[in-house]
Amino acid sequence: MIVVCQACQARFQYDDSRFGGVRTKRFKCPKCSHVFEVVNPAMGALPMGETLTRPFTGPVPEVGPDPGLDLGPEPGAEPTPQTPIPPARTTARRDREAMLVAAGLQKPGLPSGYRFSLAFLSGPQASTVQVLDRPRIVIGREEGDVITRDPETSRCHAVLEIHADGTVWITDQQSTNGTHVNGERISEPVQLASQQEFTCGNSTFMLLVRNIDEFPLN
Question: Biased composition, Pro residues: where in the chain (predicted)?
Answer without folding.
Answer: 76-87
